[in-house]
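Sequence and fold:
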Amino acid sequence: MNLRSLSGSGAQKPLAVVKQGSPALDVTRVRADFPILQQEVHGKPLVYLDNAATSQKPQRVIEALTHYYTHDNSNIHRGVHLLSERATAAFEGARDKVQRFLNAADRREIVFVRGATEGINLVAQSYARPRLAAGDEILITAMEHHSNIVPWQMLCEQTGAVLKVAPINDAGEVELEEFCRLLGPRTKLVSVVHVSNALGTINPVRDMIRAAHDIGVPVLLDGAQAAPHTAVDVRELDCEFYVLSGHKLYAPTGIGALYGKAELLEAMPPYQGGGDMIRLVTFEHTEYNSLPYKFEAGTPHIAGVIGLGAAIDYVSELGMDAIATHEDALLRYATAAAADIPGIRLVGTARDKAGILSFLLGRVHPHDIGTILDHEGIAIRTGHHCAMPVMQRFNIPATARASFALYNNEDDVDRLIAALHKVIEVFG
């Protein structure tokens, strides 16, 4: 693949194009929507900067869960009584919301799963496994989360396929020329992260998809870290599959969605067997249900799906462009402020980044940084962030990671910076 056939020099497009005149995010009003942010931790107001691990939930989502369990708790699709009808309507209404949120062409292309991880595993076992032979290749990048590494390793063990890994540079950016070089006649699937959870890197996914499609290779995008922070248009991206996790999108844990092009989902066998994914069962033969239900075996996480719908309503009303603009400004503010801290090393300095600041501070172990910050009321994440190969690439055991969301503000960043100076005072 010739890199020149891509968009000019391969420069990355911004994660979101901000519309002229987009309203600014009223962060003070937004913060009031999140009850958990009103508390104190160790006697200090909570600053929550662990959003890449999971986000907090607005009152609207909490109330949606409470309303379902208080008024509509019932199984779906099977009952003729009113509670079941109301629960089914809310459940299927949430599917329509996910379809619109991702701009999918058809509601049948939205499959509810437990999260991005299950979505990737579904594609690995239902789409990829029947199509792989020994020596075939799957291409990922060196910045992937474990959930976009291990399922493919398992698949390679099952089929004799080979996992190829496109390298990243010292800034944490994919080496696009090498990615294109690794594409070849044996490549059967590309699976890449849209936004890195450990580095904040925004991958040039349009270029990557175009390169893969030039040789007829389908693409899965792991959108767990992208969907909460920017508008995602799967038809404009033209990816074959896209996965997201609800709990990072201000929705409950244990729920997510897989988007897949209808013609591919139609051709895929069910991932699991059980109730609701069938149309007819005899001891001699089972006839599977239509899309998307053939992939949704058993009683689903009904409340989670309803909560996901409420979360999508919430961010859609705020405006994804406004959210992206606010978080980008906050990242720039935090990056500039961190640069003045003695001994700090930022890990992940890509030109195009989302709201993640991973760093080391002198010889202080990230766990010690996290502990001191916790006693200052600040929640960050420390460790390998389920991305051990990223840590190996930079020859480090772990990082401290502050990750931003729509309810964070400059005061949160100022508190973080002040606490990091206290870390320096403690450890010298």
In short: The mean pLDDT is 94. The chain has 14 helices and 17 strands.
